[in-house]
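$ ./design --mode recover --in tokens.txt
reading tokens...
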């Protein structure tokens, strides 16, 4: 019998939420794991940092250690007009600084025994008969399996010929220190703006002493995004026709309705690398964490039975996430098509907001909205 030689059981490329969770779970099970990260944590990640409350049971640590704000309610605007304000008696979301949240996740992973190499970028991978070879800016390694969790523009998806998501939101974000007298006003409420982003929306999220405002749209014009974000800021009297603090831009790779592959041979993709972002509100962190767990579970199974395929992962993702994403995509298409009408609908039926709170709390699911009949209501209006 020939002995197969490899450096690690699993190499995880990219240590954002998806990669840190996947590598932590596998290390905890006793497998040898190398985590490769091109940057060094704590690192900046352009992100609103708003986590739906349903993420809590999927985290190994107490979220209150890094949560900046606990969110109980929202206000919904159409341009500069506030139409609805709803509160919940239990948290619907938490806001975090991604630097702190991601650092906490990577610390957990290290504790479980993952070998973490930062400032090392993966440049490509090659699949061999019994292992995968990973090339980096510093050298090369081999592993029995590779998890690509290297974000929206990752190298692993390209290396295995998986095309990126077609539904790519362009997003910009303005992050600044909140004037002292306003911190109490913004403590536990988020604002959602309709009418400012083409097939998307705008937001105001509090993060401790900071505030982030942003817009995500499917349109291509960056100039329009910037001028509409200025308009949003002025609506809340942040700044005087000028951005203040930092202005960042990035893309959000949302589920686009295709039944695409997420694995090839001994390699699979998780989180943004797989386009696993919910297409209505653009929530990606929860799904990065969920897919990190699923990726680890399938890879652990393959390590046990010696399989050279990870197709079970594709089946699990389709079953657990795609059904929900399909309904979210339907909702996005209808709700963002005529945002004035959508806003009028919400004003007339504010209870619809509570259904979304239930989704964020993990009590409801998008596919259950069908049963509640609100998409028929939307259809009637639009
Ligand atoms: C403006 C904006 C606002 C957003 N707001 C929210 C929000 O409020 N709530 C929410 O849930 N989601 C939000 N998202 C989406 C969310 O940020 C992502 O879905 C989430 O970060 C995905 O996690 P991930 O682990 O898959 O990827 P990432 O967090 O992108 O992590 C990927 C990691 O891989 C590393 N990497 C990349 N390439 C390589 C390489 N070649 N070699 C080694 N390492 C590599 C990167 O440095 C990075 O650390 C927002 C996105 C944007 C752009």
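writing sequence...
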């Amino acid at each position: 019998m020939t002995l197969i030689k490899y450096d690690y059981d699993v190499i995880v490329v990219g240590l954002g939420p998806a990669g840190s969770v996947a590598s932590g779970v596998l290390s905890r099970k006793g497998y040898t794991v190398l985590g490769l990260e091109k940057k060094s944590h704590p690192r900046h990640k352009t992100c609103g940092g708003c986590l739906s409350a349903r993420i809590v049971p999927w985290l190994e640590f107490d979220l209150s250690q890094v949560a900046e704000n606990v969110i109980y309610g929202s206000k919904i605007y159409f341009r500069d007009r506030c139409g609805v304000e709803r509160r919940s008696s239990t948290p619907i979301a938490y806001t975090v600084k991604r630097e702190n949240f991601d650092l906490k996740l990577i610390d957990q992973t290290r504790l479980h025994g993952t070998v973490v190499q930062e400032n090392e970028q993966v440049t490509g991978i090659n699949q061999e008969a019994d292992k995968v070879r990973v090339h980096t800016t510093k050298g090369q390694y081999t592993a029995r399996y590779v998890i690509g969790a290297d974000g929206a523009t990752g190298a692993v998806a390209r290396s295995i010929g998986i095309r990126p998501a077609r539904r790519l939101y362009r997003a910009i974000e303005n992050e600044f220190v909140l004037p002292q007298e306003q911190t109490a006003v913004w403590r536990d409420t988020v604002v959602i703006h309709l009418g400012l982003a083409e097939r998307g929306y705008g937001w105001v999220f509090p993060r401790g002493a900071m505030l982030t405002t942003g817009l995500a749209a499917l349109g291509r014009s960056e100039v329009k995004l910037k001028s509409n974000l200025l308009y949003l800021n002025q609506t809340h009297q942040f700044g005087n026709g000028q951005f203040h603090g930092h202005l960042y831009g990035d893309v959000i790779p949302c589920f686009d309705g295709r039944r695409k592959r997420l694995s090839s041979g001994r390699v699979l993709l998780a989180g943004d690398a797989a386009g696993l972002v919910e297409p209505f509100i653009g929530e990606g962190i929860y799904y990065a964490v969920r897919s990190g767990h699923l990726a680890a579970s399938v890879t652990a199974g393959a390590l046990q039975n010696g399989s050279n395929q990870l197709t079970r992962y594709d089946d699990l993702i389709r079953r657990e996430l795609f059904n929900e994403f399909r309904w979210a995509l339907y909702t996005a298409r209808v709700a963002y098509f005529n945002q004035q009408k959508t806003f009028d609908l919400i004003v007339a039926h504010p209870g619809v907001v509570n259904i979304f709170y239930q989704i964020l709390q993990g009590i409801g699911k998008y596919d259950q909205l069908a049963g509640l009949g609100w998409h028929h209501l939307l259809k009637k209006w639009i």
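exit 0
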